[in-house]
Amino acid sequence: MSKSAKIFTYIIYIISVIVCLGFYVFNGSQNKMVSTILNWGYILCALAVLITLIMPFFYRSGGSSKKTLWEFGIVVLLCLVSFLIASGNPVDAHVSTPPTHSTLKLIDTSLILSVVLLVVAFLCAVLSGLFKQRNLK
Predict the structure, then answer these.
(1) Residue 110 contacts by C-beta under 8 Å, 6 or more apart in sequence?
(2) How far is CA 14 from CA 6, 21, 40, 52, in A?
(3) Is 92 within 8 Å of 62 (Cβ atoms)?
(4) Helix 3-25 crosses helix 31-58 at what angle (to 10 degrees)?
(5) Are 104 and 90 in contact (CB under 8 A)?
(6) Could you give the CA distance from residue 34 to residue 4 in angstroms, rounded to a whole number?
(7) Is the Cβ–Cβ distance between 8 and 44 less than 8 Å?
(8) CA 91 to CA 111: how far, in whole Å?
(9) Most distant pair of Cα atoms in the chain: their distance
(10) What are residue 94's phi and psi, to 5 degrees?
């Protein structure tokens, strides 16, 4: 790993430790700390997506950037299909503040996408093992 990548990783670690320590110092009872942790999680997810999309353009091996764009397109397509399948209908629950339709739609989309990605990951793991075993014979 290059020196700049190590420095970037250590900075991310230090900020994460500070956020976690702040959560335990404030006992997690204040909404400020919860929103801080959520915002930090959003920042980390955005960084992961950006780095995943940008890195193949720095290390060009011909098909790597095309492959990344195809994979990104597949992820966007899965998200879109999950959003279209999601109903957003409320469940019977006694809550003080009922969620909005858009919140329910987003939650349904996230659950459907999680299940689809879990099935895809399982199939990839099983099929890659079968193909490797088949190629060894």
Answers:
(1) 82
(2) 12, 10, 12, 22
(3) no
(4) 170
(5) yes
(6) 31
(7) no
(8) 15
(9) 62
(10) -100, 95
Percent of the chain having pLDDT more than 90? 12
Our CA dihedral for 113, 93, 37, 1, rounded to 10 degrees, sits at -20
Tell which residue, 61, 51, 57, 106, has the closest CA to residue 79.
Answer: 106
The per-residue pLDDT for range 35-63, each reduced to its tens digit, is: 777 888 888 888 887 887 777 777 666 66
Q: Nearest to residue 118, comparing CAs of 130, 110, 106?
A: 110
62: left (phi over 0), alpha (psi -120 to 50) or beta: left
And the tokens for 34? Answer: 């919860």
The neighbour count for residue 82, using CB atoms within 10 Å, is 19
Distance CA 137, CA 115 (A): 34
Kindly give the parts of the chain with pLDDT less than 70: 1, 27-32, 59-65, 136-137
pLDDT at 123: 93
Residue holding tokens 């420095």? Answer: 7
